[in-house]
């Protein structure tokens, strides 16, 4: 199978400070990978490097031509950058922004772009919000709108950085179910960074655990029988990942 | 005579027609750029660059050169200095604006004190004077204003994306640094053109007032720019005629018209909520 992208011996720095090193892994089409690790482990730095926001200090990331140039990568940040209620952006204007990567020159929108915006809003169950100001929406609604912005260009890869940290538990569950549908039904490859170990264990198919280098990368089947991981995490934490995964996914 | 009759009477004067033409185009530029600047919390860059233009006008008068042609490149350089200080020295934007702005005022005051004799002219640039707008100024102002407006329209969606979420714009492959410098250049040109009409002390109000007025009532981004542009041009027209009729300073009258419009718009929003 062709890799969607390959990270090869990557090292990342912030200024002179080394954030992480010796990072090597490959992502396959259709993967749903939970990226976890303690604070300062390099999760967000790795995501930024994959998105092209942070240049490697060493090593490289090789993308399949279908996602090269950021045109087929959707990105969902932790929360809406502009939470100011006066910011005058309608939901449909924010979502349409996700189509700009495919345009050149003046990057004007056409009728088919607005049809795509309506379609993705309907798919994510927020069509009725199209003409609302984004600042007037709840946190859960805003995250759905930003997911629509990430999905409107039908990307092959979706990268999410702590997307549910500001959501209450019920909305969080709904959001994860929505991501699961996108992965299962539409074949979108998902890279999900989260502190929420239990939800990662429940919803994702693979685990990438970082602590300034890769501690573990593979399937839960491998993770759950690994004595090395049992020793690293302690039986309780390993059980937390594995129990939710085996009960809720399989 | 009624206000309308007096306004028609004013139109027979060349300087009024020039002020209306140049002022309206500057107002449009300020409204377009102001929306991006205010929403990015960069409102004060207009104020800072206006202070720079005080020094550049003083320099131009010292050299007996055209204030417009001296001001435009130097104000652009100052805007680059502000952006450069923010990036390289890791200063917050407002601190960088403060540094460049106060330095420029100091330079302007020094030039004015060294070269006595043009302080009356300099005062006309401080608070604006429509009487000093020459025919060549009109030609340069119209040409540059049209260039500014065309560029803003061309990059409209890109500028919106950067204004809403710069990180996302970078993920999509936008050259956000280029867009930031583009806004700085366009703002610098607009400031240098605008000081003729409202003066260095008041030009930043044309960037801030129409946008915050529009923000009170607009829902979408495009609607904000349309309302802002309408308010901005209307206030210039009202300001020019009213100042002629009541014999008031034009720049200050335009700013007061903007302040009244903002108060009305703010009241409309509050009443809706209550």
Task: Characterize the structure shown.
The complex is a heterodimer of chains A (250) and B (274). Chain A has two domains: 1-72 and 157-250, 3-Layer(aba) Sandwich (Rossmann fold), CATH 3.40.50.300; 80-154, no CATH class. Helix content of chain A is 37%, strand content 23%. Chain A has nine helices and nine strands. In chain A, the strands form two sheets. A six-stranded mixed sheet of chain A has the order 5-6-7-3-8-9, with helices on both faces. Chain B contains 13 helices and no strands. The longest helix of chain B is centred in the N-terminal third of the chain and has 26 residues, at 14-39. Chain B has a single domain (3-268), classed as Orthogonal Bundle (ABC transporter involved in vitamin B12 uptake, BtuC), CATH 1.10.3470.10. The mean pLDDT of chain B is 90. Chain B has helices at residues 3-10, 14-39, 44-62, 67-88, 93-114, 119-127, 135-154, 156-164, 166-171, 176-194, 203-217, 221-246, 250-273. In chain B, helix 2 packs antiparallel against helix 10 (176-194), helix 3 crosses helix 4 (67-88) and helix 4 (67-88) runs antiparallel to helix 10 (176-194). The radius of gyration of chain B is 19 Å and the shape is globular. Chain A binds chain B through residues 51-53, 69-71, 73, 75, 77, 81-82, 86-90, 93-94, 97-98, 100-101, 103, 105-109, 131, 133, 149, and chain B through 39, 154-158, 160-161, 164-168, 170-174, 214-215, 218-224.
């Amino acid at each position: 199978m062709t890799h969607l992208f390959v990270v090869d011996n990557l090292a990342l720095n912030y200024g002179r400070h080394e954030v992480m090193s010796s990072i090597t892994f490959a992502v396959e089409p259709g993967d749903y990978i939970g990226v976890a690790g303690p604070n300062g482990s390099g999760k967000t730095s790795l995501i930024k490097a994959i998105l092209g926001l942070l240049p490697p200090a060493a090593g490289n990331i090789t993308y399949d031509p279908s996602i090269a140039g950021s045109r087929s990568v959707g990105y969902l940040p932790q929360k809406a950058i502009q939470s100011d209620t006066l910011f005058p952006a309608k939901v449909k204007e924010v979502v349409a922004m996700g189509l700009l990567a495919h345009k050149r020159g003046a990057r004007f929108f056409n009728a088919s772009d607005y049809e795509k915006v309506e379609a993705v809003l309907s798919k994510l169950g927020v069509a009725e919000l199209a003409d609302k100001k984004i600042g007037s929406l709840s946190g859960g609604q805003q995250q759905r709108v930003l997911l629509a912005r990430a999905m409107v260009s039908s990307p092959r890869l979706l990268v999410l950085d702590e997307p549910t940290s500001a959501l209450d538990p019920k909305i969080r569950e709904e959001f994860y179910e929505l991501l699961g549908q996108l992965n299962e039904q539409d074949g979108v490859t998902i890279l999900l960074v989260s502190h929420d170990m239990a939800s990662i264990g429940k919803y994702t198919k693979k685990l990438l655990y970082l602590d300034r280098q890769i501690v573990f990368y593979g399937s839960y089947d491998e993770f759950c029988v690994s004595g090395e991981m049992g020793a690293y995490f302690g039986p309780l934490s390993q059980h937390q990942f594995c129990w939710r995964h085996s009960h809720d996914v399989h | 005579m009624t206000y309308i009759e007096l306004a028609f009477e004013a139109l027979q004067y060349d300087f009024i027609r020039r002020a209306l033409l140049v002022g309206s185009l500057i107002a449009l530029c300020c409204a377009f750029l102001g929306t991006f600047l205010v929403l990015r919390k960069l409102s004060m860059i207009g104020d800072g660059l206006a202070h720079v233009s005080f020094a550049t006008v003083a320099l131009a008068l010292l050299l007996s050169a055209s204030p417009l042609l001296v001001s435009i490149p130097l104000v652009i350089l100052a805007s680059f200095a502000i952006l450069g200080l923010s990036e390289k020295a890791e200063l917050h934007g407002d601190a960088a604006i403060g540094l460049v702005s106060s330095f420029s005022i100091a330079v302007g005051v020094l030039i004015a004190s060294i070269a006595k004799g043009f302080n009356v002219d300099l005062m006309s640039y401080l608070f604006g004077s429509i009487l000093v707008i020459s025919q060549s100024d009109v030609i340069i102002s119209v040409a540059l204003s049209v260039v500014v407006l065309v560029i803003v329209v061309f990059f409209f969606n890109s500028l919106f994306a950067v204004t809403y979420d710069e990180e996302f714009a970078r993920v999509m492959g936008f050259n956000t640094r280029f867009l930031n410098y583009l806004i700085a250049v366009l703002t610098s040109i607009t400031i240098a053109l605008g000081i003729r009409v409202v003066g260095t002390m008041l030009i930043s109000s044309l960037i801030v007032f129409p946008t915050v007025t529009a923000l009170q009532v607009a829902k979408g981004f495009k609607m904000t720019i349309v309302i802002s542009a309408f308010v901005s041009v209307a206030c210039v027209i009202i300001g020019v005629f009213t100042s002629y009729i009541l014999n008031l300073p034009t720049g200050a009258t335009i700013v007061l018209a903007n302040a009244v419009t903002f108060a009305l718009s703010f009241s409309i929003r509050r009443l809706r909520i209550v």
